[in-house]
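Re: your question from the hallway

Yes, I did run it. Sequences:
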Amino acid sequence: MAEVDEGRDLVAFRSGIRDWLEANCPSEMRDGAGGEEAICWGGTTWVFTCEAQKIWLERCAEVGYTVPTWPKAYGGAGLSRDEDKILKEEMQALGARSPLDSFGIWMLGPALLKFGSEEQKLQFLPPIARGEIRWCQGYSEPGAGSDLAGVQTHAADQGDSWLVNGQKIWTSYADRADWIFALLRTDREAKKHLGISFVLMDMRSKGITTRPIRLISGASPFCETFFEDVEVPKHQVVGTINRGWDVAKYLLTHEREMISNGGNVMGSGRALGAVLAEAETGQSDPVLRGEAMRAEIDSLALEMTLERYKDQAEGGQGVGDASAMLKYMGTELNKKRLELIMAADGAAALTWGETPASSWLRTKANSIEGGTSEVMLSIISRRILNLPG
Amino acid sequence: MAEVDEGRDLVAFRSGIRDWLEANCPSEMRDGAGGEEAICWGGTTWVFTCEAQKIWLERCAEVGYTVPTWPKAYGGAGLSRDEDKILKEEMQALGARSPLDSFGIWMLGPALLKFGSEEQKLQFLPPIARGEIRWCQGYSEPGAGSDLAGVQTHAADQGDSWLVNGQKIWTSYADRADWIFALLRTDREAKKHLGISFVLMDMRSKGITTRPIRLISGASPFCETFFEDVEVPKHQVVGTINRGWDVAKYLLTHEREMISNGGNVMGSGRALGAVLAEAETGQSDPVLRGEAMRAEIDSLALEMTLERYKDQAEGGQGVGDASAMLKYMGTELNKKRLELIMAADGAAALTWGETPASSWLRTKANSIEGGTSEVMLSIISRRILNLPG
Amino acid sequence: MAKLIQTEEENLLAEAAKGFLSKSSPVSRLREMRDGGKSSDPDLWQEMAAAGWAGVLVPEAADGSDMGHAAAHVLARAMGRNLTVSPFLSTAVMAATLLRQFDDPATRQKLSQISAGGLTYAFALDEGAKFAPQSVEMTAEKRGNGYLLNGKKRFVVDGCEADRILVLAKSEEGLCLFDLANSNKGLTQDPLDMIDSRDAADLVFDDVEVSGEALLGEPGAGFDLLKPALEAGQAALAAETAGLAEAAFAMTTDYLKERKQFGITIGSFQALQHRAAHLCCEIELTQSAVLNAGRILDQSPNDAGLAVSVAKARATDTAQKSVQEGVQMHGGIGMTDAFDMGFYMKRARVAAEWLGDYGYHAGQVAKLRGF
Amino acid sequence: MAKLIQTEEENLLAEAAKGFLSKSSPVSRLREMRDGGKSSDPDLWQEMAAAGWAGVLVPEAADGSDMGHAAAHVLARAMGRNLTVSPFLSTAVMAATLLRQFDDPATRQKLSQISAGGLTYAFALDEGAKFAPQSVEMTAEKRGNGYLLNGKKRFVVDGCEADRILVLAKSEEGLCLFDLANSNKGLTQDPLDMIDSRDAADLVFDDVEVSGEALLGEPGAGFDLLKPALEAGQAALAAETAGLAEAAFAMTTDYLKERKQFGITIGSFQALQHRAAHLCCEIELTQSAVLNAGRILDQSPNDAGLAVSVAKARATDTAQKSVQEGVQMHGGIGMTDAFDMGFYMKRARVAAEWLGDYGYHAGQVAKLRGF
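Structure:
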C-alpha cells in the first residue's frame, strides 16, 4: 500500500527496470507463481523445470539482479535500498518469478559480506549470485533445541585443518546442497559461547552423510547430517576462530528482520473467510464462525503490523526485537488458522492428498523453528518489556 | 445426585430429624433463601432480621445442630459423617436456612478442635456454637500477597503477655467481629515459617482499630485492621508458640477442601444459558454465542467434577491437592461467565444497581483471594504433576 | 496511502497532549469528579478547547484546525491513557464529522461554536441494550413545517450535559436525522449511574416538536448521513481504548518490576513474563489497527468500514485483556478502589459496548470479508 | 445414580486392559500397520474378542458379558491411550447398542457373532463433510418385498473391512435403517487414505437390492433406532479421546522432567509448568464428563443426550489442546514422524470429526440447555 515520493533519478531508474524486465523476463516466468514449486534453488544438483527458468536465472545473474544490493565486484548490481525496492515492485507488477532463492543469498551472503575475508568473498559470493553453489545451514544439533550455542559437533585442531566429528539436524536440503555453513565447537575448554567457529564445508567431503527427516506432515526438506572424521581446511572459517557465535547472532537477527519484511509468518494458502464461506457449516456453527471471525480480525491486524514495520524499516527505523512479536503472533495465528480450516472442511480434510491436512500439520513447526514461541516471549519480556531475569 | 444405601439406624435417624425439623424450624426460615442476606452471622453485634431467625438459632444451638459434627461437650451434636449428611439433606428438602454461619464454625472451630488446649476448647467452642462470638481472620498483611508466611505484625514477648504492633488486611467483617484469630510474628530471628504464632485476640482490646476497604465493585466486608501496642495474654496462643504456621497450613488445606465440597467456586446467580436466551443478541452474535456454549460446557464439566470429588470424599478418598484444580478452574470460569453475562446484557449492565456489574467486578477477586490462580497452578505443577522446582 | 507510522507532526502532537493531560487530567481528576458526585468536567473541556482540540475535525473555514482523524486519534489515545473525561468523542469527533457534510452558514456557525468549546453534542443511537443503529422504532411525524418526535433512546453518552442531540427517527419517508436542542420541550433526560462515572442518560421523547430546520439533509437519508460520524466515533473510541490498554499495561509492567513476593521480583516469574509478553503483542497489533483506521479515514473515508471495525474490535478485546491481567497481576491491591486499575476496567467495559461491541464489529468484518 | 468414581470392578478392568494393551497393542503396532500399508488389524481384534471385549455391550442371552457403557468406556479409554486400532467402537459399542434393541433369534445370532469377534459392522452416516445424521439424501425405493438403495455415504469408519453396513435412507415412509452385507452387489467401497492410518471409506450405493429383512424396525423409525447407537458411540469415542489426551499429556510431562535446555530441566520453567497445570485441569474436567456420560448411559439412557454431548465436546477439545501442547513442548522432535506424538495428533483430529465435532455437540448442549 505504501508509496514514497520518488526523485527524478528513481523515476528514470524505474522506467529502465521496466524496459529491462519487459525485454528479458521470459513469458513463462511471468506467471506470478509462488510457493515451493516456483522456486529455483540453483546449485550443481538443480534440474531446471524448463528452459525459461534457466534463461531467466542467467540473464538476471549477468546484471546482478539475483542479489541486487550486493556490490558489483561480488556478483551483485550494487543497487541502493530505494532502487532495490523499485526492482521488486516492478517484478511484482509483471508477475515475474524470483530468478533464484537460496540460503546462500539469504543467509551466508550477508554473513560473508560482514565477516568474510576478501578471498572468501571473491571465492564464494559470485558463484552464489550465479546460482552455482547451493548452501545449507548447519546450526541445530540433536538435543540442543532452543539452545543454539550448545554446539557439540567438534572440530579438532590438526594444524592447517580441522577434523570434524558430530551430527547436525534440521539441515534443510542437506541432501541437495553443495556446501554447508555450520557452527562447530573448536574449543571445548572455553565458555559455551566462546568456543564456537563458523565454518564452511564442501558437502562432498569424505565423511559427510545425510539422511532425510520425515515429519508428521510427511516428507520434508529437512535432513540429519553426520560428520565422521571430516577434514576441513582452516581458511574455511568465517571471521575469527572461536568467535563464530558473533556471526551466528548476526544471522539470527538478520533472519528475524527478514521475517518482519514480509516473510512467511502469515502462512499462505486459502484465506479463512473464503474457506468458511464455502464450508458446509460456515454459517451455522457459532463456535467455528466466532473463532474464524476472531482469527480474521487478528490476521488483518497482523498484516497491518507487517506493513507498519516495513514502513518503519523504510523510514530507517530498524524493527529489531519487535520482529519477535511478529514471529510469535504470526506463527501462532497461522496454526490457529489451519485448525479452523481443518474444522471447516470436516471429513474432507482428514485424508492425505489435495487437502489442507499436510499444511495443517506443517504449521505446528512454525512456532518451533527459527526460535520457539517460548523463546520469542522471553525475548519480548527481556528486551522490549525489560522485565528482570 | 448421589444416594447411598442407608442402614436401618440411619433410616430411623432420618425420620427423627425430619420430625424435629418439622416441629422446630419456623416457617419464615423455610424459604430456601440463600446468599448474603439470608445468613445469620451471630455475635454481639448481630441484629436478627426477624424473631424467627433468633428462635431458629436458639433451637438449633440447644441440640447442637449449628455445629452438628462437633462433640456434645463443645456445643455440637456429635453426629457421624453419615448423620450429618442426612441432616443437611433434610434441611435442604425443607428449604431450611442455615441457622448460623461464621468464621468460628468454618475456620477457628476445626483449628481449636485439632490444636487447642482443653481450656481453650471449653472457653471458645460452645459460644461459637451458640452464635455468641463472631470471629474474623487475621492472616494477610499489606504487601504480603500470596506469601502468607511473610507475617510482619509483631508480638513482643512481655513475660505473661504479648505486645502486638502491626497491620492486617482483608479481614472480613473485622468491624463487626468480637474476636480475631491471627498469625503474629513471635520470633523475628527464626526462619520465616518458624517464628509465627496463631493467636486469639479480643477485638475490643485497647489499640485495635479497623477501617473498611472499598473494592472496585463497591462496598465490601473487607477491612484493614491496625494493632497499636495491643496487650494479649499468652494463654491465647493456639498450639505451640512459634509453630502457628502448622495451624495456618491445616486451615488452608481445610479451606480448600471446603471449597471442593461444593463451596462457591462456581459462583451463583443467573445461569449463562438463561441470560443468553433472554439477551437481545443471544442468537445472532456468533462470537458471544460460541463463547457462551463453551462456558456452559465447561461449567457442566466442572459441576460433574465437584460431584466426583464429593463422591470420592464420601468414599473416604481425600481430595487433597486436587482442590487446587477446582479453585483455579472454578474461579477462572466464573470470571469468564460474568464477562459473558455483561456482554449479553449490553448497555443494560453498565450501571450500578440491579445489574450484574457489581458481581462482575467482584468475580475478579475470586482468582486472587484464597490463593491466586498462579499459586494454584504452581501447586498443581509441583504436587500433582511433580514437576521440578 | 500514507505510511503506517506516526508523522513528525503527530509525534509532536502526542507529546503536547501527554504534557497537557498529565497536568490537567491525571486519573485523580476522574476520581475527584466521581467522589464529588459529578459525571462531567466542563472546566476541563474549556481548557481542551483552548488548546485547539475541540476543532481537530472542524474545517478551517469554520475556525477549526482540521487536522484530520489520525490526529484526533493521537489525542483520543492520550485521553484513553489518562481516562480523561470530556465530550471530545461525541462533539469534536462525531458531531464535527457529521455536520461538516453540510456547507451552509448555519452549520458553519455550529461547527465554529464546537471548535470554540461553546457547543456540545450527544448522539441518541440505541433503543435496545445492544448497538444496532438501524433498528429504529422512534417516530417522526410530519406536523406542519416541522416534526413531532416520539420514542425512547437508551445509553446516550453525554446525554445529560450536551447542548444538542442528534437522533434518528423513522418517518413515512424513511429514516430521518434530527439536530435539536437538549432543552426541547417534551424531551427528558434520565441520568444513568454509569460504572465509568461518566455522563450518560436514557432520553424520552414525548411529543417533542421540532421545526423543519431540525431535519438534516433529505428525509430518508438519515442513516447515510450518520454513518461517517459513527465510523469516525468508532475509530476514535478504538484509539481511546487502545490508549487505555497501553496505560493499564504500563502500570502492570511497572508493578512487575517493583513488587516482590517470596523475596523475588514478581516480574522474574516466567509465567507472568510470558503473559505480559503476549499482551505486549496484542497491544502492538491493536496499535497497527488504530493507525490504519486513522490513515484510511483521512484518505478514503468511504472505504473505511473494514479498517474501523478491525480497530474497534481489536481495541475492545485488547483493553479487556489488559485490565483483566492488570487486576490479576496486581493481586489484592488491584481490587481496591483506592488503586486506579478499577477505573480502567470500568471504562474499558463501557467503551466496549459503546458504538458496537466486539461481536458487532466481528460481524461487520465477516460481512465485509464475504463470509 | 451411581457415584462418579470408578468402581472396584472398573478399576480391575482398567488394570487388565492396560496390561493386555501394553503387550498386544503398543503404539509401535499402529506404526507397523501403517508402514506396512495396512489400515486395520484383524488379528488384534481376534485377541480382543478372546479377552471378552467384543461382547462388552452384548446381552448375556447372546453370549455377551453385558458389562455396560461405563465398562466399555474403561476399555475405550485404555485403547485411546495406546492408539489401538480395532472395530471396537463401530461394532462392539455402536452396533451392539443398536441391535440389542431387537429381541429376535436372527438379531441374537448377530450379537452372538459380534461377541465372538466373528462379525464386524460399520455405520454409513455422513453424506456431507460434517456430521449431520438426519440430513439424508440417500434413497430407499420399495422394490417388491425389498428395497433398492441409491446414494453415497462419506467417511464411513471401518467402511472397507466391516462385514456389514448400517445405513439410513429415506423412503416414502420416512427414514429407514438398513442392515446389509458390505459385499452386496452394487455397493462399492472407495478407501480413504486417512491421516490416522485407519480404515475409512466412501461408500457408493448404486441400485443396491436388499430384502425386506434388511430393514430394521418400522419404516420411518430409522433415526429413533439409530440414536442410542450414536450416543453410545459418541460417549465411547469421548472416552477413547480422553485416554488419548491423557497419554499425550503423560508423554509431555515425562519429557518436561527429563529434557534439559540451557542446562536446566525444562519442567522447571514456570511458563511451561503453568501451561501443563492448566492442561492437567482440562483433562480432569474431561474425565468427569466421560465418567458422567457412562453412568447416565447405563442408568437412564433416554436422558443421556446432554451428558454425551458434554463428554464428546470436552474430550474433543481437551485432546486437541493436549496434542498441540505435546508437539510444542517437545519442540523439533515432536514434529518428527519417528516420534509418536504425531500419531496422537492425527488420531485426535479424526476423532474430533467423527460422530460430531466440538461445534456440533456445543450446539446440542445449547439446545438442551434452552438457548
